[in-house]
Amino acid sequence: MEGPLNRAPETGSRLHGSRCPDCAVAVYPADPACPRCGGPAEPVELSGTGTLWTWTVQRYAPKSPPYVPPAAGFTPFTVGYVELPDGVRVLAALDIDPEDVEIGMPVVIGAGGGVPRGAGGAV
What we know:
mainly beta, 0% helix, globular
């Protein structure tokens, strides 16, 4: 089913969520119904910047299938929740070295290869 709430974002584009016009709750990923009041939600483009809320390093390969390891093998990666001014926390793969990551740091976030991606940057 294709529609404004479920189209796949292009890599590097802003994330698309939804917002309830009645109670103003925003969510990501988009949902056709508000999780608070159950009313209909409308598509919304979310902020492209936020603040790192928490993070960790994924040191073990995900279960296979569905994960297919790359030819060079699994490489640990940083993941975290980025809090957007829209009132949404988005789980994202972070293109930031673990030694450079700090809770509260500014993060630029967008779509990337099937998952949200974040990078350190000025907000």
